[in-house]
Amino acid sequence: MTAWYDTWDDSTNPTNEGYLYIVGNDAGSTVTNIFAVTGAVTVASGYYKIPVTFVSGSLPANGAAINLEFSRTGNIGSQGTTGTQGTTGTQGTTGTQGTTGTQGATGPGTTLTSTAVTTAGTFYPVFVAGAGAQTPSIRTTATAFSFNPSTSALTVGGTVTAVDFDSTSDQTFKENIQELSNSIDIIEKIVPVSFNWKNNGAKSYGVIAQELEKVLPELVHRNEVNGAKTVSYIPLIALLIDAIKELNKKVNG
Hints:
Blueprint (H helix, E strand, L loop, with lengths): L1 H5 L11 E7 L7 E6 L4 E2 L4 E2 L2 E6 L8 E7 L72 E4 L4 E4 L26 H7 L3 E4 L6 E4 L2 H7 L4 E3 L6 E3 L2 H19 L1
Antiparallel strand pairs: 1-2, 1-6, 2-5, 3-4, 7-8, 9-10, 11-12
């Protein structure tokens, strides 16, 4: 019995644990009393104490047979379904700047794979403004700074400055070697001129390639890209040296 009574105060309602019904058990009896159980059942000396409050009904006569019935107010029901997600709150303020981390390890180097090129064409060197991470620059103007792999011709459209310039002149690279003669006659056919460069207006001195080509065609070359003609001035030094020697012989002769 005690275990059964203990369930009377196992309701989730803190003020009404359930209802106690006293029902007449005699044939034709209509006696019914309803009491609200308001607390836990306690065990006294030979009996049980049930705290109740009267709700309705009438008491049976003394000695009448009765039935006791109890009904709880019920346990908590099962968890309801989760509601829909609420709207996102406003953005919080930005936190303070964290401390700078340690320097990472140096990344691997970059290896460039090159391919030999011997065909005729114009290639442009690439430049950077300094060391470290730089954006490369290039000027794609054939007359400014370019290279032709087919002819090994390097074209520079400006002033080249160096401490010294050496020309390949070793005998092992030459054949059909002959001493010059009549250099004065050749020099007399060359027309030296003064002029101004169109690109910068600078004044200079030299010869006209088309005119020199009539006298020494082997010293005039044609650019395969733009068709412009160029002059190899260094061989003229040999003609001037020989012409001076010829003049010296005439003077001393």
